[in-house]
Amino acid sequence: MRFLAPAAVWFAATIPVIVVFYLLKRRRVVLRVPSTVLWQRYLAETQASAPFQKLRRNALLLLQILLLLFAVFALVRPYVEGQQVPSSLRIMILDVSASMQSTDVVPSRFEAARGEVLRWVDGLKPGQRMVVLQSGSRTETRQSATSDKLALRRAIESCAVTDGPSRMGDALKMAESLVRDVPDAEIHLFSDGSVGGLDEFENRNLPLVYHRFGERANNVAITSLEVRANPENPLQRAVFASIANLSASPVSTLVELSFEGEPLDARPVQLPAHESGSVVFVVSQSRDGVFTLRHDAPDDLAVDNRASVFSELPAPVKVLLVTRGNRFLEKAIRAAGEVRLTVVPAVPEGSATWDFVVLDDVMPARWPEGNVLAIRSAATNWFQSTTVLRSPPIVDWKGTHPLLRFVNLDNVVVSEAIGVKAPAWGTVIADSPQGPLIIAGENGRQRVVWIGFDVLSSTWPLRVSFPMFIANAVSWLNPATVRAAQLNIRAGDPFRLELPQDAGAVAVRPPGSGWQSVTVGSSAREAVFGATDRQGVYGLKWRTNETAFVVRALDPIESDTAPRAEIKVGRYGAAAATTLRRGNLGLWRWGAAVALGLLMLEGWVYHRRTA
Amino acid sequence: MLRQLEQLELLARRHSRSGGRGGRRSKARGQSVEFADYRNYVAGDDLRHVDWNLFGRLDRFFVKLHEEDRELPVDVFLDASESMVFGAPAKFDLAVRLAAAMGYIALCGFDRVSVRVFPEGLGDVAEAGVRSALVGVRGRKSALDFLGNLARVRVGGGADFNESLRRVALRVKRAGSAVVLSDMLDPRGYEAGLEALVARGFQTHVVQILAPEELEPATFGDLRLMDSETGAEQEVTFGRYRLRAYRQVVEDYTQKLREFCRARGIRFFRTTSDTPPETLLLRELRRGGVLG
After folding, report:
1. What is the Cα–Cα distance from A491 to A551, expressed in whole angstroms?
2. For chain A, what are the domain ranges?
3. Cα dihedral sign, A373-A379-A384-A387
4. Contact state of A35 with B229 under an 8 Å Cβ cutoff
5. What residues of A are in contact with residue B214 (Cβ under 8 Å)?
6. In chain B, which residues touch A (CB < 8 A)?
7. Which of B187, B219, B220 sits opposite A37 (nearest CB)?
């Protein structure tokens, strides 16, 4: 044991003072009594005449000296030295993602991690600094580099666990930038290892120490929940859900679906260990509202035991096709679900009444405002320069993009295309060696799909992939899909709402609390609400409209609560869970606590003697 | 009250050994109407006492003997030490009233009453006169003076209980009834004094008078006790939690005294200074066989 403030031992010099006080006479009340005969027994206790005999068997004095000794013990700041290497700067990253809410460690992984970080703060020596980062869906610097234990403690205590996913890559990047010029710096990560976003991270020399929290994986999770039109009956809705059993034993549970709080259906589900299954409910929906799914299997992580989805009533998609004549395209659009198609040769005035516009090899005088599928047609500001590509082969396409779901472009031959450079807002989803052929992206608030060739001068309309692509495009460009994505966000992601010009005040009500007003700039057409750390149904109000949006915790990585023995950093690096002891275990609190207990005991003894 | 007292008398368990004539039976032969015995006539006997009926039957002279009524000397030992002024009402007030009542009862019964006030020797001539006037009082006519003198007795000084009682026991000519009115809290004890009375042949009664405050103290904390008689100071820490233990101390002290008295045939009573005297006289002492 060593001491931070050995000079405080001088406070022990007050012990003789207490003894002297005891030797001095106490002030007593003079009481005349007829005779001291009846008091002989009490006189015997205090009758000793020699001064030091007074001190014998005096519990109060003993207690006070003990109290003082423990107080001095606390004042000299004793500590037990740890084994860790001295480090002048430590970056403490506290994982606040949803999986840290697991209760396999009492009270929770997060609280255990926070307690451990606080103990590290206790062991901070003079001259050493610490930074506190909170890593959830966002990385927040809770405390910049300081040696001030009070500030560090306050910062750590202000951290709160969220329902969001972990984006540890951001936190590590920030930590890396902080330790870059400090040779003996360390990065301490307090987590259960359920972290994502580290694949792209490349730094094998990161001084990372991983403190693992969590003992077991016992979780049954709802990993996805979607509402779609029932393909067999357009009047009904199909609710698709995936449920995963991430524990080591088989689970049987009851899955219950409700709409706006009213139970609709319940199904028993049996899941073997480490397996997942899906459930489909077919229900009718009469109004816009929130579907909520929950299961009742007892597990360690409660946050993924329920999930909600906001579903708007399905409405036909209004599409304006501007073409000089393209029957393939027309038929493909009509076949893509419930579509109200208007075919015109030129863009009329007021195109805002359509959900999206298809420009087939037509250059409009005025570019439409809504979403656009542009075939061999581009707005003037999209591309710098254009060339002509002769017979460009399609060599690569992004099958993961929603537009190319189930689409195979293997046997499509294009005779001629416009050669451009992809703009910053667009993603190339089909590529030829000479240049991009299909670009999709969001330009401002406008979703755009650009096809660089005339489909009629290719073999594509004859392939099965063409109507599938058009169906995907209709779905992707439908503003209702965009809105559904806006109304169902992941925990931690900001909620954005496009507003009419005179929307006025906007208010949001997070689950379990009151309305909070959202400030919207006078020129802005979008309200942004960032405090979406908790999953659930959030109320939303502007002018006379009142609706809701849903924040969801659905994340397979977070739901897999198995504590990881090591964290993979990038493609090659890994950080194994450490057994390193924290430095310098401060003991002054124990001394102070015992002194406080003695103080109370002393008060009680005094009261007993004189009361 | 006086009328009630007149109907009472001090009960004696023994025949009076007093010299003076009074209203008590004695072993002495004398002039009363109670026949006691016969004895042979010897020359010089008063012929008036010869039983002529017996002479007629037996032809011999016998003299009839009668019992003689004698007075009962009543000695009341009144503790007037400093410790007796304590209590509300003071212990001494009750002691004086009891002494007055017993004295009056005795005077009405033609007994000789002596109130022995101790501690003696206050050095005051007037006080000494008052105290000496309380010794050997006889006759109902003296009752008024007796009560007046008793009211003038002053309290003060530290008593030596044993010495006071022993001195009186040696001084009295004949031992009768002794009533000790005291708090019995002399640090030097009470045993020697009471034993001296018993040894002298006194039929002894002890009335211990304690103040309510002595049974239930109301002052707590760090105390400096000052003995009222000796002036000695002692320091004591006395908490409320010790009250029960204190009560036990008082009980033990009284119990020890009671057992001491019982072993020596002494009647013992304990009372508190707030007890009404009439309750004590008409109920407690009658029940205890002191008065009848």
Report:
1. 5
2. 2-80+589-610, 89-215+563-583, 317-479, 483-552
3. positive
4. yes
5. 34, 38
6. 82-84, 86, 91, 183, 185-187, 211, 214, 219-229, 232-242, 245-246, 249-250, 253
7. B187
Q: List CB contacts (< 8 A) between A47 and chain B.
A: 234-235
Is 80 exceeded by the pLDDT of residue B166?
yes
Nearest CB among B82, B84, B221 relative to A610 is that of B221
Q: Which pLDDT score is estimated for B137? A: 86
- The top-level CATH class assigned to A317-479 is alpha beta
CA nearest A27 in B: which residue? B222
Q: What is this structure's pTM?
A: 0.53
- Tens digits of residue pLDDT in A388-419: 889 999 999 988 888 998 899 888 999 999 98
| A89-215+563-583: CATH, from 3.90.1300.10, 3.40.50.80, 3.40.50.300, 3.40.50.410 | 3.40.50.410
Average pLDDT in chain A = 84
Residue A7, H or E segment: none
Residue B51 has pLDDT above 60, yes or no: yes
Candidates A29, A36, A610; nearest CB to B239? A610
Q: Decide which of 3.40.50.720, 3.40.50.11440, 3.40.50.410, 3.40.50.11750 is the CATH code for B73-287.
A: 3.40.50.410
pLDDT at B206: 92
Percent of chain B whose predicted confidence (pLDDT) is above 70? 84
CB-based contact A39 B221, cutoff 8 Å: no
CATH fold match for the domains A89-215+563-583 and A317-479:
yes
Give B100 to chain A, closest Cα distance, Å.
24
Q: Exposed e or buried b for every residue in B26-42, given b needs 16+ CB within 10 A?
A: bebeeebeeebeeeebe
Among A14-18, A43-47, A228-232, B276-280, the minimum mean pLDDT is found in A43-47
Structure tokens at B2: 């006086």
Stretch A293-314: mean pLDDT: 88
Mutate which: A22, A24, A29, A36, vs B, most B CBs within 10 A: A36
Tokens at B67, concatenated: 């019992």
Instruction: Please tell us whether the domain made up of A483-552 is placed in CATH 3.40.50.300.
Output: no
Residues of B in contact with A26 (CB under 8 A): 222
A608 to chain B, any CB pair closer than 8 A? The answer is: yes
3-state SS assignment for residue A16: helix
Give the pLDDT confidence of A155-176 residue by residue, as tens digits.
999 999 999 888 888 888 889 8
Q: What is the pLDDT of residues A560-579, one digit of tens each?
A: 888 888 888 777 777 777 76
All CATH 3.40.50.410 domain ranges of chain B, comma separated, are: 73-287
What pLDDT does A144 receive? 92
